[in-house]
Amino acid sequence: MKSRFFIVAFLMIIAYQPIWAKIELPNIFSDNMVIQRNEKVLLWGWANTGEEITIHTSWDNKEYLVKTTIDAKWKLEIDTPGAGGPYKISFKGNENEIALKNVMLGEVWLASGQSNMEWSATTNKGIDNGEEEIENANYPNIRFFTVPRRTSDFPQENIPGSWEVCTPETMKDFSAVAYFFARRLQGELDVPIGLIDNAWGGSPAEVWTPKSVFDAHEDLKLSAEGLEETPWSPVSPSQVYNGMVHAITPFKIAGTIWYQGESNRGRANMYGKLFSEMIHSWRNAWDSQFPFYYVQIAPFNYKEPEEGVLIRDVQRRVMQTIPNSGMVVVSDIATIDNIHPTNKKDVGLRLANLALKETYESYEGEVYGPLFKEVNLQWKKIEVIFDHADGLMFTDKKETYFEIAGADGVFHPAKAKIKEDTVILTSKEVKAPLKVRFAWDNVAEPNLYNAAGLPASAFISE
Fold first, then answer.
1. What is the pTM of this model?
2. What is the pLDDT of residues 244-257, one digit of tens each?
3. Backbone angle region of 209, left / alpha / beta, with phi > 0 → left and psi within -120 to 50 → alpha
């Protein structure tokens, strides 16, 4: 009887031993990683309760001591210097030591969204000049971390994956938009660039948005709960955020690039609020007002009238209300019969130019196409005033893509005349125009540009 008691007691002791008997790091910390330069960054992980851990950083030859709390977790905030590497970080405890090698200090960007962000040089038909781009993708100062697809009902503290150096072999299956974005940044800034890719093809914005948003907004919650199941992406609210985003929110980033919206067509009336709240929630989770740059979805021949252009107009409006955000228009490099345009290079370059100008202040060129500012009613005509309108021009005057409406709300094609940053519109069918819309069609590829060769965004006036 006594022996049986001791056996049971021994098994209970084993069962209640701490889970983290050794130091463990989240997978976002690995060899080849990039850590944000010139910042206060967080190092964290797990170990035995009360264990003292010694952390050594080779860039400054400093040693730090941190003790694990009662929940078997530890964290340490340190200051990072300017860009450089390769460096080494070591973590030493009672049972083991972990040494991370080939660590760089530079700029870290998160690349997220749905299939057009996920699209790689080898996905289906690939990208323009794919073989050549793959062959030349030797950039040791660009590093990739791909977050595998995961869903969860609850926020996760870790994700699978590890950092990889950019080579033809690693680049070919990585986000092409993110790769071209990083290549441009790295070439211009001459610092290491780290990319975290956590896109999921076909995903609606609801799955990327944390539960706190839906708890606070009943209308968004009801809309999200009504999503229909699809064969290509989960639709349960917050599941992808829980499985693919939450675990990396303590990891300091410079900013986010985003390409998504196609899967929210049909719900444009909710998308503006949802997208805005999602951006706010991510910034709150990271405790940082980082820049959020995104791609306006491209023209495509959707079966449902106006669903694509409605989303494009919502995305334009969101940019005007969210500080430190920006949007690139890609209507001129779209393919209306293919929802996945293969020109990913120009998309990445436009995002990079946006970051270089607004985040790094190292690019002097124009990064926006003409953006609707306001209308000026002139009885028989209506004047449309644009921002970013230097050198405003039509590349083809046969069709202007402008329409105007009077009090009856019926839109008619308009004749257009450019005067500096203003387009003056008239129509024989509209005696007293009150409203204007531009490129208001799913497949419209408008011909209004500025001197930088960037296209105007679709819009409808209030």
1. 0.94
2. 999 999 999 999 99
3. beta
